[in-house]
Amino acid sequence: MEHNILVIGGNGLVGKTIIRILKSRNPQVSVFVGGRKGGKTENDLKIDVTDPRTFQVISDKRISLIILSVNDQSDNILKFAIANGIDYLDITKPTPDLVKAYDVAKESTIKSRIVFSSGWMGGIVNGLVKTLSETADIQEVKLFVYYSVKDLAGESSAHFMAENVAKPFIRYKNNRRVPIKHFLDAEKFDFSFGIGKREAYNFDVPDLYILNQIEKIPSVSVKMTYNSKLITWLLGAFQKIKLFNILSLKERKMIFGSSGNGDQSVFEIMVKTSSDNKKLSLQSTKGQAELTAFSAVLHTEELLRNFHENKIYFSHQLHQPLSLLEKLKAYETINIQSGS
Predict the structure, then answer these.
(1) Domain 123-287 belongs to what architecture?
(2) Are 335 and 325 in contact (CB under 8 A)?
(3) Which of 11, 106, 117, 112 shows the shortest CA–CA distance to 63?
(4) pLDDT tens by residue, 247-305
(5) How does strand 265-273 pair with strand 138-147?
(6) Could you read off the pLDDT of 212-259 as tens digits, one per residue?
(7) What is the b/e burial string over 32-57, where b = at least 16 CB atoms within 10 angstroms of the residue's CB?
(8) Which of 117, 150, 175, 211 is the most exposed place for a label (fewest CB within 10 A)?
(9) Phi and psi, residue 87, nearest 5°
C-alpha cells in the first residue's frame, strides 16, 4: 500500500526533525512538507491552516496521513481530515485547544484514525504511566519536568506560555477540579541524571486532562523547573506579584522565547497505587524537539504497520505500553530509569 505522509509545519524545528527521523527509519514512505510559503520541490506544498482553500492539494497528492506540527486554532485541518477520511496526528495543542478539538471530533462521523498526541513530549507520558501500573489501580500521578533555556526549542511552547501564564488552569485532586496558576506552589523534587534537588512549580500540559478525564486517575499534577534556579525563582516571584498580568503579550513572549543551541530534556513520572509508589525517569540527551519528533514517528509507524480501527485515539492508546517503553529505550539519545 502506498503511504503519502504530509507534515504540516514541516519547515519548523519539530517538523523538520520528524521528517528527518521518519525518512531515516522508513525510506519507502513518501513525505510531503506543508507550509504557508510552499517550496521548490514537488513535495513542498503550499498549505495555510487558516485558509481551507489551500487544502485541495492534500487530495491531489493522495495524502493518507497528516501530521500536524503547527498551531491550527480553528481546527480546519482536523475538519478536513475527518470529512475526507484521512488519518490525522496532531502534536501541537495546549489543553484548552485539545479539549475543543476532541469535542469537534466526537461530534463527527469518523472514517479514519484521528489521533491526538498533544501530551508532554508527543504524548508518551501517558503510555509510560501504564508501564508502572494498571490505571484502574493508580491513585495519583505526578509529572515533574526539567526545562532548559539552553535547549533548542520551537516557538509554539513559548507562545503558549506567553498567552496563558496569567490564566488559571486545572489540576485534579480526588477528581475535584482545582484551579491553579503557573509557577506557584513550589515543591522540592530530586531530579535524576545529575540534576539534583530543585524547586518545581505548577505547569499546564494536556496530560492533566488526559490522565484524569480519559484514564480516570483521580489525582494528577504537573510541575516544572528550569535549568537555572534563578529563572525558576524569578518566574514564581513574577506570578506572586502578578507582574504577568500587566506585561504585554510581546513582553511575555520575550521572557519565554529564549532558545539555545541544545541541551538535555528530562521528565519524571511518580505513580502512587494502593500498595506502593513507582517512578520512571526519562532523559533525552538531544532535547525536547528530538524527543517530541521521535514520539510522533513512533505513533506514525504504529498507524502504518498495525491495524487500528477508524476512531478517535489519544496517541498512547495506539501502543502496547511495554512495547512503547522498549522502542524508546532502543533510541540512542534516550535514557530511561525505573525505580520506586
Answers:
(1) 2-Layer Sandwich (3.30)
(2) no
(3) 112
(4) 888 888 777 766 667 789 999 999 999 889 999 999 999 999 999 999 999 999 999 99
(5) antiparallel
(6) 999 999 999 999 999 888 888 988 999 999 998 898 888 887 777 666
(7) bbbbeebeeeebbbebbbeeeebbee
(8) 175
(9) -60, 145
Q: Please give the single-letter amino acid code of residue 14.
A: V
Query: Exposure of 2 by Cβ count < 10 A (0-12 exposed, 13-18 middle, 19+ buried)?
Result: exposed
For Cα atoms 314, 78, 2, give the angle at the middle one, nearest 5 degrees: 85
Taking the CA atoms of the chain, what radius of gyration do you get in angstroms? Answer: 19
For cell 521528565, the residue is 267
Q: How far apart are the first and last CA of the chain?
A: 45
Give ranges for CATH 3.40.50.720 in the chain: 4-121+289-320
Count Cα atoms within 13 angstroms, Cβ side, for 141: 33
What stretch(es) of the chain map to CATH 3.30.360.10?
123-287
How does DSSP classify residue 11? Answer: T
CATH superfamily, domain 4-121+289-320, is NAD(P)-binding Rossmann-like Domain (3.40.50.720)
- CA–CA–CA angle 251, 224, 313 (5° rounding): 100
CB of 307 closer than 8 Å to CB of 133: no
Q: Which residues of 213-248 are buried (b: 16+ CB within 10 A; e: fewer)?
A: ebbebebbbbbbbbbeeeebeebbebbeeebbeebe
Q: How far apart are CA 267 and CA 187, in angstroms?
A: 15
Q: Which of 51, 100, 72 is nearest to 9 (CA)?
A: 72
* Phi, psi of 128, rounded to the nearest 5 degrees: -70, -30
Give the closest residue to 94 by CA, choosing from 263, 222, 218: 222
